[in-house]
Amino acid sequence: MRAPRVIRSAVRPKRLSRWTAAVPLALALAVGAAACGAAPTPAGPGSGSAPPAAGARTLTVFAAASLTGAFTELGRTFEAAHPGTTVRFNFGSSATLAQQIVQGAPADVFAAASPATMKTVTDASLAGEPAVFARNKLQIAVPAGNPAGIDELKDLADARVKVALCAAQVPCGAAAVKALDAAGLTVTPVTLEQDVKATLTKAALGEVDAALVYATDVLASGGKVRGIAFPEADEAINDYPVAALSGAPAGDLARRFVDLVLSQRGGDVLTRAGFEAP
Amino acid sequence: MTTSPTPVRGRARGPEPAGVPGRPPWPLLVPALAGIAFLVLPLAGLLVRAPWSTLPQRLAEPQVLQALRLSLVTATVATGVCLLLGVPLAWLLARTDFPGRRLLRALITVPLVLPPVVGGVALLLVLGRRGLVGQWLESAFGISLPFTTAGVVVAEAFVAMPFLVISVEGALRAADPRFEEAAATLGASRWTVFRRVTLPLIAPGVLAGAVLCWARALGEFGATITFAGNFPGSTQTMPLAVYLALETDPEAAVVLSLVLLAVSVLILAGLRERWVNRVGG
Predict the structure, then answer these.
(1) What is the CB-side half-sphere exposure of residue B211 using CA atoms within 13 A?
(2) B9 vs B245: which has the higher pLDDT
(3) Interface residues from chain A to B (CB-CB < 8 Å)
(4) Min CA distance, B243 vs chain A (Å)?
């Protein structure tokens, strides 16, 4: 099937072959033009400080993946309160987001899942004073039916129980280490996942008998896992800081968004998503 | 029969690039140079940012060697699995006719299109502890693939096999069928024809496919971490180690990436050298 097609195109008239040779060039130009056109839009130094270009403004918020639900709702609230404003989110691992900001990504607000990742940004003098707006506590997530009969944290130390933890390099993993240390337990997990959602997935699919994830993740799983609170979680509470970035293209909007996150209304949305007030 | 592959090899692997003599035309040269810059500059970026002064002690960390060894072993075994299953599959697609063949070929390229993380989830749904096949594997044989080194091989093979199948199928279609026909008229069975004529004929294609397949398996991240998890020594391959290093220590991630790159380039270049020498005489 394929071979005859190749032969046919090889004997096509010369004009066409010259034309096709130019296609990659045109493509390269188009890509280049697109890249040039796209880059300045969010980064555009004028978009924030210049006289308002009649409405249409964009606020770019970089936020930890665990904030996806709550912040999407807050974004809609913000858009309703500021007609003509669009809130764009970049959700991801806090450490990755911090790296992106340090490397010059055009962001207005940064909400991190740990003070350590926020520190990466404040150390580079790229953000104002961060404020803690929420706290997140670990829970044991067990798959539907709780096949291994987990009741408390020390059940995870049983060698027959398959446990998924976050890797110590990411905030949920650091918290898990702290909680297990506080309980004086040694747990050998079968996997150290790269983020909390991946850890949750392993429990939701029943591949592990238990996982340590945040209370918010248990809530967000919509009943696929059951959460078991445990007292040692109090030793490993995660603070979520937020800050407007100093180079914010939409500086005034950034401060107003941070105010919304810290307000009573913002707190209500976060509480509903499973966060605790700071 | 034994000499038949020689002219084909000579044609495909001649020492001089075939074609019309003369300067390369600019509509080809300019995009080609742009392509080189596009592919090579990010590598240069890694080299520039590498923390050369602390490189030796970073490399001496046991976790690095452990991850590197695991990567090389799993990628090689995965390539073996792909060869064992992929070459016959490519033959089936190229040399036989059956209803639904075009659909099958489209389905085989699915792992290329699927985001690897989704591929990993799909593997869990089939081979996981509660998966369609996995629960049976566990109850009947006590085999559980997730979180094991075998699971890494499965994830890598799943993602890398299309590269091999497509390369080999292309080689089969490009191979001159007259050699196979001649062998058949001389009384060789279809299996003998495949073994003694077809396979030597398409060897360059198989090797190219295997190299692509190995390289893809070596760099595999999404399906591996989703299906096999991440545990140092058993399932943490280099790309997983790089990703996690990136969370806390970007410099370490650069070092790990460079190690992976250097080792793979050395192996691929060495392999090519040996292979070309053996064929060329």
Answers:
(1) 16
(2) B245
(3) 1-3, 18, 21-22, 24-25, 28, 93, 95-96, 99, 162, 164, 167, 169-170, 189-194, 198, 201-202, 205-207
(4) 8
The reply to whether A138-236 shares the fold of A53-135+239-272 is yes
Q: Cα(B184)–Cα(B189) distance, rounded to whole angstroms?
A: 7
For the domain made up of A138-236, the CATH class stated in words is alpha beta
The string of DSSP codes covering A154-172 is GGGGSTTS-EEEE-TTSHH
Question: In sequence order, which residues have a C-beta less than 8 Å from that of residue B219 and are 6 or more positions away?
Answer: B239, B260
Say if residue A24's pLDDT is above 80: no
Q: What is the pLDDT of residue B14?
A: 47
What is the pLDDT at residue B129?
Answer: 87
Contact B274/A at CB under 8 A: no
Q: What is the mean pLDDT of residues A43-55?
A: 41
Q: Which phi and psi angles does A164 have, rounded to 5°?
A: -110, 130
Q: Domain extents for chain A?
A: 53-135+239-272, 138-236
CB < 8 Å to A99, chain B: 246, 250
Q: What is the pTM of this model?
A: 0.75
Residues of B in contact with A190 (CB under 8 A): 146-147, 229, 231
What is this model's ipTM?
0.73
Q: Residues 212 to 251 of B: which have CB under 8 A from any A CB?
A: 225-226, 228-232, 235-236, 240, 243-248, 250
Residue B255 carries which side chain, given as an amino acid letter?
A: V
* Disruptive mutation site among B118, B231, B234, B254 for chain A (greatest number of A CBs within 10 Å): B231
Output the CATH code of domain A53-135+239-272: 3.40.190.10
The strand ranges marked E within chain A are 57-64, 85-92, 109-111, 131-136, 138-143, 163-166, 191-193, 210-214, 225-228, 238-244
Q: Which domains does chain B have, with CATH numbers?
A: 61-280 (1.10.3720.10)
Q: Is the pLDDT of residue A120 over 80?
A: yes
Q: Which stretches of A110-214 are DSSP H helices?
A: 115-123, 171-183, 196-204
Q: Which two tokens stand for residue A18?
A: 């010259």
| Closest-CA distance of chain B to residue A36, Å | 16
Least confident of B10-19, B135-144, B187-196: B10-19
Residue A5: list chain B partners with CB under 8 A. none
* B15-43 pLDDT tens trace: 555 667 788 899 999 999 999 999 989 88
